[in-house]
Amino acid sequence: MTWLLTGGAGYIGAHVVRAMRADGADVVVLDDLSSGDPGRLPGVPLVVGSVLDADLVGRTLREHGVRGIVHVAGKKQVEESVRRPLHYYRENVEGLRVVLEAASAAGVGSFVFSSSAAVYGAPDVDLVTEDVGCRPVNPYGTTKLVGEWMVADTARATGLRYANLRYFNVAGTAGPELTDRGVSNLVPMVFQQLDRGLAPRIFGADHDTPDGTCVRDFVHVADIASAHVAAARALASGAVGGLTANVGRGEGVSVREMVELIRSVSGTAGQAWSEPVVEPRRAGDPARVVASADRVAAELGWEAQYGVEEMVASAWEGWNRLTAG
């Protein structure tokens, strides 16, 4: 069975590609390379183009005999989505609509949608279950929630089997060549500051949390990839018809705690210049979002295998190789 991975040359997408190929799946990637790197995809067929190009998407499905899609392509920076909401609606909502329409026309039977914990907004609970009301606090989260509705509505109309995977804060790497090269996520953002001899930045220390900084559920990107493999298997076999599930560890770590761990792993702990500085909150950042992962365990038999220390250590090794090269 051949799967199309949209956004498969990106940080998360390339990890999913590697994991699915290791599981025996045939994979083709569609990526506009706006943030992806074809060097992450040795031996993988790559179609360069946008998910907004309906003709290209349809042709790719037909020519490669695609029967399942993992849709990872999209924009994901919260702060940018607040500044450029219409850009996010075009890329994330219209892009998904085009892919779903092409999938329906081509008779694709299985669809995995990369959603996000951002759909919940700022839930006032210790652990977020999938039954918690979705009230996104930024346009990025809204586009992901609308995307889930679109997938579920399409499934009701066509019989498409689907899994909406709401993943939490992704970090780490399964190999240096797959390292996160963006600096919008916390871990590479801190690495970049330390590399420049600058203090790491913490955005907001006045949240209603134990140390005042945001609390997040960090999950290793290799675990994210294995969740996609589990979902693809279940959909292809017919074991799951429709699923919306969190993908996280169920453990909260504050931004300050994560920064201190990064300083320790990088060998800069104890050096005055690397003490984090606090800047104003970023628009759209909720105080605490930590997953309950019970549903994904029950439905897919999946659970996270890695802790935050492994995430940071793997990311640091990858970052050093990336910057050295």
Q: Based on Cα principal axes, name the global outline.
A: globular
Q: Number of helical segments?
A: 10
Distance between the termini: 37 Å
Low-confidence stretches: none
Give the biggest beta sheet.
7 strands, parallel
CATH topology-level name of the largest domain: Rossmann fold
List the helices and strands and how they pair.
Elements lengths: L1 E5 L4 H12 L3 E6 L14 E3 L5 H10 L2 E6 L6 H6 L1 H22 L3 E7 L22 H20 L2 E7 L1 E3 L14 H10 L5 E3 L11 E2 L1 E3 H17 L4 E6 L5 E2 H12 L10 E3 L8 E2 L4 H7 L7 H17 L1
Parallel strand pairs: 1-2, 1-4, 2-3, 4-5, 5-6, 6-11, 7-10, 8-13, 9-14
Antiparallel strand pairs: 9-12
Helix pairs in contact: 1-7, 2-4, 4-5, 6-8, 8-10
Keyword list:
325 residues, alpha/beta, Rossmann fold, UDP-galactose 4-epimerase, domain 1, 2 domains, seven-stranded parallel sheet, three-stranded mixed sheet, globular
What does this structure look like?
The chain has helices at residues 11-22, 54-63, 78-83, 85-106, 139-158, 186-195, 221-237, 255-266, 294-300, 308-324; strands at residues 2-6, 26-31, 46-48, 66-71, 110-116, 161-167, 169-171, 201-203, 215-216, 218-220, 242-247, 253-254, 277-279, 288-289. The chain is an alpha/beta fold. The protein folds into 2 domains: 2-170 and 220-247, Rossmann fold, CATH 3.40.50; 176-215 and 250-324, UDP-galactose 4-epimerase, domain 1. The strands form 4 sheets. Strands 3-2-1-4-5-6-11 form a 7-stranded parallel sheet, sandwiched between helices. Helix 5 (139-158) links the parallel strand 5 and strand 6. Helix 1 packs across helix 7 and helix 2 runs parallel beside helix 4 (85-106). The radius of gyration is 19 Å and the shape is globular. The model has no long low-confidence stretch (mean pLDDT 95).
